[in-house]
Amino acid sequence: MLNDEGTPVAEFSIVKLPLGSEAVAGATIVAPLGTLLTRGVVFAIDDTDAAQYPFSWCTRPGCFSRFGLTDLLVAGMKSGSNVNITLYSIGNAQQAIPITASLNGFTAAFDALENQTQ
């Protein structure tokens, strides 16, 4: 995911989970070191209500937040235009860092993924 200047600021990946799992897919967001962990990741599709997810750990590549995507969220991503993610920096905890990624092509890409095995 790129900011307005085209600089990489986060990574967002999705895997399909085994059939019968509570969530249909798992999402991982990797934010850069220096991200304010206590604010978590704020995730929304278009102008829908945002959900907040915690960070789980940090390593040299960045700080990781993992969460499940329900059928409803995946359907929203398939019909939506953008995923909006908000992060916060430890340097300025009050200043939101909004990141938007297009969902153009998401349906084809998601449908091409294979379910993970247990």
Q: How much helix, percentage-wise, in residues?
A: 10-25%
- Please state the average pLDDT score: 92
SSE order: EEEEEEHEEH
Q: Indicate the CATH class.
A: Mainly Beta
Shape: globular
The side-by-side strand order for the widest beta sheet comes to 1-2-6-5
Distance between the termini: 29 Å
Structural classification: mainly beta
- What is the CATH T-level topology? Immunoglobulin-like
Number of strands: 8
Textual characterization of the structure:
This protein has a single domain, classed as Immunoglobulin-like, CATH 2.60.40. Helices cover 14% and strands 43% of the residues. The N and C termini lie far apart (29 Å). It has 118 residues and is mainly beta. Strand 3 (41-45) and strand 4 form a beta hairpin.
Short characterization:
By secondary structure, the chain is mainly β. The protein contains two helices and eight strands; from the N terminus they run ββββββαββα.
